[in-house]
Amino acid sequence: MRRLIVPFGMFSSTISTQFLTIAWITYVLLAAARQVGYAQSTPNDVSQGTPYWAIAAHAEAMRVPTPVDTAASPETIPPTIPKDSTNADPTGEVETYNPGGPTDTSTNAFFQTLGTNGRSCFSCHQPQDGWTITPTDATARFNKTKGTDPVFVPFDGATCFNDKVATLAEKRTAYKLLLTKGLIRIALPIPSSPQFEISSVKDPYKCTALTSPTTGLLSIYRRPLPATNLANSTMALFESTIMWDGREDSMTQQAIDATEIHGQTNNSPSAGDLSEIVGFETGTYTAQLSNKVGKLSLTAAGASGGAMALSMQLFIPDNDPITNPGGFSDNVFDLYTAWDSISGKTAAELMQESVARGEKIFNTLTFNIRGVRGFNDVLGIASVPGTCASCHNTKNFGNRSVDGTMETGIDNDIVLNTTGLPIFTVKCTCSPGPSCPLGGQRITTNDPGRALITGQCEDIGKFKVPSLRGLAARAPYFHNGSAATLTDVIDHYNFIFGITPRFTTKQTTDLVNFMNTL
After folding, report:
1. In the predicted model, what is the mean pLDDT of residues 452-480?
2. How many CB atoms neighbour CB 398 within 10 A?
3. pLDDT band per the 50, 70, 90 thresholds, residue 297
4. Could you give the residue ranges of the DSSP H alpha helices within 158-270?
5. Comparing C-alpha atoms, which of 212, 203, 213, 211 is closest to residue 427?
């Protein structure tokens, strides 16, 4: 059955405020009416405070049809994804391993166009990019197809759905965030009865539509997360937080929304389609397999790099210093302990020594974690001695082993590059107290993060702790692509935590070399 869609996002700024208000009320009522459908397929997770209406409204907002929403070129998809394959990346080779493979792409819904715009899941999730999309790959596809590859749909690939894309120059401008940072546009409504208001907006693309400081739709820009390394061989989910803001409560619901929204479907995917999509994602593993320096194999001399070893990794739940302080172990990575005793002068041996040192730095080098909402405030301690593993604590995987989001100062960092992103000033309107610790404060952010799901002021700027596997293949980093390199990531934490003494040049090199082997 075709859905009734209220095209709120297409209203012109010349329409009267009164008419916009009426339209928004209609829009929210429509979203609320769809709660039943969502409630039938997903249980209400009261602990996370995710109201059905927010998910439904997001889905409706992003289904707005656009004048140009169909790609001119067919998608290029390989006929088969082998059981085990490699792709070149900037530091060596990244491996994709699927124990149930090979996968015939002609019979798997992950690779099929289920919507109206020519896209499949594969459009934004490809093996050479660690199963996401990178600016390098997006640029190559743009140049090859002159901007007609299915990923280049104005609806969400452009800075705004109504960007001009008639000429090649216009397309380059419209898709600049995808081409330079690998960002896709997401439209999210402000939840009902929020603890905050949007007091000002600096949106260079005029794609945010507010009807009041507490109602309307925000356009934000995020990196697609890798569609890989989601579960181990026993189907225990490594990913405890699904999506950057944790808005999805199951991989099945994520597949539904991704297909309906970004594929612009007229109908929900079938149960068979969903089974194929989720089955491929949860059965696929990605990790770095080799390093260019000395043609170094990351499985040599007893090391456990590569995707095959990752596929056999047991999931250790709740290895978290906040939720399980007595059971937390910071020995998160032990892939290269066999290289601790290596000593030599060849390029490969020197790289092995550096990687082994970097793994130890990740696990054991202590610095003071401070100012992180979702960490320090939960513990009630302003400054906590910790390591990289304190937050990236899933064994040999590197995301967070429990559900939850954190704010790590990305909006307040002069090290990172947030050029071209909108700026929202958010005022916490609730009274200061235990239920609103940030009451009365103003926060400047490029993306309110989880607060757009919960409506809670304390969630402004909070995002999931992402996986660290396959890092070398999928720069840039953070949800908004603001860190071009892993060195930028380290510099960010040096700056935001005021680490003293700062990571030395050698420590930074060792840590980067280690992360490039993940």
Report:
1. 97
2. 25
3. very high
4. 168-174, 176-181, 251-262
5. 213
Please identify which residue in the block is written with the tokens 């390029």: 347
Q: How far apart are alpha carbons 486 and 361 in whole angstroms?
A: 15
Helix (H) or strand (E) holding 288: strand 285-291
Helix (H) or strand (E) holding 88: strand 84-89
Question: Under DSSP, is residue 131 helix (H, G, I), strand (E, B) or coil?
Answer: coil
3-state class (DSSP) for residue 263: coil
- How far apart (Å, rounded) are the C-alpha atoms in residues 425 and 380? 26
Quote the tokens at residue 211. 């009807």
- On whether the CB atoms of residues 412 and 496 are closer than 8 A, the answer is yes
Strand partners, 86: 95
Q: Are 104 and 95 in contact (CB under 8 A)?
A: no
Contact 465, 391 (CB under 8 A): yes
b or e along 63-101 (b: 16 or more beta carbons within 10 Å of the residue's beta carbon)? bbebebbebeeebebeeebeebbbbebebbbbbbbbeeb
% residues pLDDT > 70 (the chain): 85
Asked if the model's pLDDT at residue 2 lies above 70, the reply is no
List phi, psi (to 5°) of 88: -70, 140
When computed from its CA atoms, the radius of gyration of the chain, rounded to whole angstroms, is 22
Peptide bond into 501 cis (omega under 30): yes
Q: Enter the pTM of the model.
A: 0.86
The residue extents of the domains of the chain are: 315-461+483-504
Q: Say how far apart CA 195 and CA 454 lie, in whole Å.
A: 9
Q: Based on the number of CB atoms within 10 Å of its own CB, is 291 exposed (0-12), middle (13-18) or buried (19 or more)?
A: buried
Structure tokens at 205: 């693309």
Question: What's 503's DSSP letter?
Answer: P
The rounded distance, in Å, linking the Cα atoms of 415 and 483 is 8
For residue range 437-455, list pLDDT tens digits in order. Answer: 999 999 999 999 999 999 9
Scan for tokens 């709120």, then name that residue: 8
Q: Is the pLDDT of residue 146 over 90?
A: yes
| Residue where the block lists tokens 């079938």 | 270
Q: How far is CA 59 from CA 27, 207, 478, in A?
A: 11, 17, 24
Q: Quick one: tokens of 28?
A: 């929210």
* Token couple for 7: 């095209």
∠ Cα 402 391 55 (to 5°):
50
